[in-house]
Amino acid sequence: MKFFIDTANLAQIKEAQALGVLDGVTTNPSLMAKEGITGKNSILKHYVDICNIVDGDVSAEVNALDFAGMIKEGEELADLHEQIVVKLPMTKEGVMAAKYFSDKGVKTNVTLVFSAGQALLAAKAGATYVSPFIGRLDDVSTDGLALIEEIRLIYDNYGYETQILAASVRHTMHIVNCAKIGADVMTGPLSAIHGLLKHPLTDIGLAQFIADFEKGNK
Ligand code: E4P
After folding, report:
1. Confidence of residue 218 (pLDDT cuts 50, 70, 90)
2. More exposed terminus of the chain, fewer Cβ within 10 Å: N or C?
């Protein structure tokens, strides 16, 4: 399973890249705003900065809601850097734009997916990635991981090549369960990736090894 980090924070992206397990980055307008990145030129520059840190796909989301606007914005984003993936909302216009870009060989990520039917449409449109938001489903008492299972089954039934990008990952067990189900990619916060490192028996075992080494090498 590929690991993407879900942030526009350059320091966190650098930290995840330094860990050596990072395969890409996802951003969205809220994450860009959180970093104080506003204005077209700053936003475009920030995407290039991210691409220069990470080896892998970087999702950059369009803000237009109409088809023509999505195409214009998406083309501008795709021209920025070869690592850019055009992120499109799961709307009628977004699906049409995903088809347009996939016919042109431009990578796409269809976002804000909350049902298997939406994921089926994204695959039919030739999207590179589909982003089901598991955390936001969990937030409304709906099993987010069950949606990943449903999409996996549907895509495997027909051999769709669209990659399941489990999004809105909130914690370490989301990552582990996505890997068990067979999500192609997960995108989550640095804290969830770091959570995978932790086990008290590792800490206890390491402390013992160090103590024994020090005893024998005084
Ligand atoms: C996906 O690409 C989104 O950026 C993201 O995963 C949303 O996560 P949130 O529900 O934590 O905002």
Report:
1. confident
2. C
Indicate the pLDDT class of residue 96, thresholds 50, 70 and 90.
very high
The question of whether 99 is a catalytic residue gets the answer no
Give the pLDDT mean for 26-35.
96
Rounded Cα gap, residues 28 and 173, in angstroms? 23
| Segment 181-201 mean pLDDT | 98
Nearest Cα neighbor of 187 from 48, 24, 75 is 24
Mutate to test the pocket of ligand 1, among 108, 133, 137, 190 (most ligand atoms within 8 A of CB): 133
- The protein residue with its alpha carbon nearest to ligand 1, atom 11, reads 168
Closest ligand 1 atom, CA of 135? 10
- CA 208 – ligand 1 centroid, Å: 40
Residue 111 alpha carbon to ligand 1 centre in Å: 9
Say what the ipTM of the complex is. 0.96
Structural domain containing residue 207: 2-216
- Looking at 87, 92, 124, 198, which residue is catalytic? 87
- The enclosing domain of 6 has a CATH number of 3.20.20.70
Q: How many domains does the chain have?
A: 1
